[in-house]
């Protein structure tokens, strides 16, 4: 069970922090607790701005910063200029997080601050090369140090009255693109347009996975019937984003879904050796 007192102690030990602030439940919780513990002069929430950040996520970062009186800074990142990132292999997130750490380094140096990320204990068991990149660059993971799981983050956030306690899990737009498919500005724009259209139709928790001219929609299992019932509107909305074929994943929404391909590949390599 995550311990809020331990988290506060860990932040006090770090003294001054730069919080990588995506606006999700984890980074929002960490930013709020850091601000509450250390005060506004020792905490800066930093949001990486690039084509892989959905517009609605950026807007919510700005709104949360205003609501909580956070010192908030936007930093442009340049991962889209990196051929290794665009290539989109299993280490894509490494290059993205490395670009973030490069962008925040001058600010951290100027502030004499540690860079902290909202990584929780549950994240340690998944394929997360971004964590490796951040760790190699000297970032700290205070939620892990204090034993917080995702459920703990949500429970304590709710107790503190943070509106992010039940915010659906989100990830960068590039996470919708299968490994091996080149990440381009056009691909990211199509994914964002399709997901924005579905949100306007009332779907909150969703992913649109990009497979060339085919879009695969993932929503929680409880929403599957609603997608089918509204299929005409949904096909039109997603088709307007440039997709010829619109499909529905009957297994429902699974965070980190595309990592399953890596798991299958690893099993295949093991069985074939």
Number of strands: 7
Q: Kindly state the mean pLDDT as a whole number?
A: 91
The whole-angstrom Rg is 19 Å
First and last CA, distance: 40 Å
Low-pLDDT windows of residues: 264-273
Structural class: alpha/beta
Explain this structure to me?
The chain has 12 helices and 7 strands. With 273 residues, the protein is an alpha/beta fold. It has a 4-stranded parallel β-sheet, sandwiched between helices. A 3-stranded mixed β-sheet has the order 5-6-7. Helix 1 crosses helix 2, helix 5 packs parallel to helix 6 (129-136) and helix 9 (185-200) runs antiparallel to helix 11 (231-239). The longest helix is centred in the middle third of the chain and has 20 residues, at 92-111. The protein is globular, with a radius of gyration of 19 Å.
Q: What does this entry show, briefly?
A:
The chain has helices spanning 4-14, 25-38, 55-68, 83-87, 92-111, 129-136, 142-145, 150-160, 185-200, 224-229, 231-239, 259-272; strands at 17-20, 43-49, 72-76, 114-116, 207-211, 214-218, 245-248. With 273 residues, the chain is of the alpha/beta class.
Task: Provide keyphrases for this structure.
3-stranded mixed beta sheet; disordered C terminus; 4-stranded parallel beta sheet; 273 residues; alpha/beta
Detail the topology: elements first, then pairings.
Elements lengths: L3 H11 L2 E4 L4 H14 L4 E7 L5 H14 L3 E5 L6 H5 L4 H20 L2 E3 L12 H8 L5 H4 L4 H11 L24 H16 L6 E5 L2 E5 L5 H6 L1 H9 L5 E4 L10 H14 L1
Parallel strand pairs: 1-2, 1-4, 2-3, 6-7
Antiparallel strand pairs: 5-6
Helix pairs in contact: 1-2, 5-6, 9-11
